[in-house]
Amino acid sequence: MQRKRILLILGHPSGDSFCGAIADQYQQAAAQAGHDVRLLRLGELAFDPLLRSGYNGQQPLEADLLRAQQSIAWADHLALVFPVWWGGVPTLLKGFLDRVFLPGFAFRYRQGSPFPEKLLKGRTAHLVATMDTPPWFFRWFQRMPALQQMRRTTLEFCGIRPTRTLLLGPIIQSRPERREGWLRQVQALAAG
Questions:
Q1: C-alpha 53, offset from chain centre
Q2: Which residue has the higher pLDDT, 118 or 145?
Q3: Cβ-based neighbours of 11, under 8 Å, separated by 6 or more
Q4: 3-state secondary structure of 104
Q5: Nearest Cα to Cα of residue 74 among 8, 126, 7, 11
Q6: Residue 1 pLDDT more than 70?
């Protein structure tokens, strides 16, 4: 097995959430498998999640976001753990992506082409999403808007290749033994 440099991003604002437990399990299993792991808990970072002028102006990056960009550049694999809220990703994660995955860092527009240069090529990603909706319903009836956004229009847009996705749910009213089973799935994912 090849040793990886993994950046684990917890997209839930609370580290005490089940997503926090998933991130802890992923970090521990990946480290035990011999990978180098950095954990980024978005709820602990100090940054404005609003891209105030869109791409029409420059908004200086806060120190935490500069460190996040350095960690993304360091990593050859990303693991994103987040809840699905209202079919999408939490505002905190979306704001992080808006502020960090900027032109010149994650992609570059090319003159004469509608498609950008993908500046984060060569990286892979795991997505672990929790939800209160049954995953089969989210997949087949709601068409997975949060995952489509993360996979296709964010990660792949920048050159990052998602390799595996875990949909865990429904979380609400789940029993402890069910949650332990999900944590074992996360452990296997991280160790692989």
A1: 24
A2: 118
A3: 19, 42, 80, 81, 82, 83, 89, 90, 92, 93, 96
A4: coil
A5: 7
A6: no
Residue 45, CA atoms < 13 Å, CB-side half-sphere: 27
Q: Residue 23 burial by CB count (10 A; 0-12/13-18/19+): exposed, middle or buried? A: buried
pLDDT in tens, 137-160: 888 888 889 999 999 999 999 999
Encode 66-84: b = buried (16+ Cβ within 10 Å), e = exposed: eebbebbeebebbbbbbbb
Instruction: Report the DSSP pairing between strands 36-41 and 77-83.
Output: unpaired
Whether the pLDDT of residue 126 is over 90: the answer is: yes
pLDDT tens by residue, 47-70 = 999 999 888 888 999 999 999 999
Instruction: Give the tokens for residue 111.
Output: 């003159």
Residues facing residue 126 across a β-bridge = 79, 164
CB count in 10 Å sphere of residue 174: 16
Reference 48, options 59, 37, 35; nearest CA is 59
Whole-angstrom distance, CA of residue 123 vs CA of residue 120: 6
Question: What angle is formed at CA 107 by the lines to CA 101 and CA 111, rounded to 5 degrees?
Answer: 140
Return the number of other C-beta atoms located less than 10 Å from residue 152's C-beta.
11
More confident residue, 111 or 192: 111
Cβ pair 89, 82 in contact under 8 A? yes
User: Looking at residue 62, what DSSP letter applies?
Assistant: P
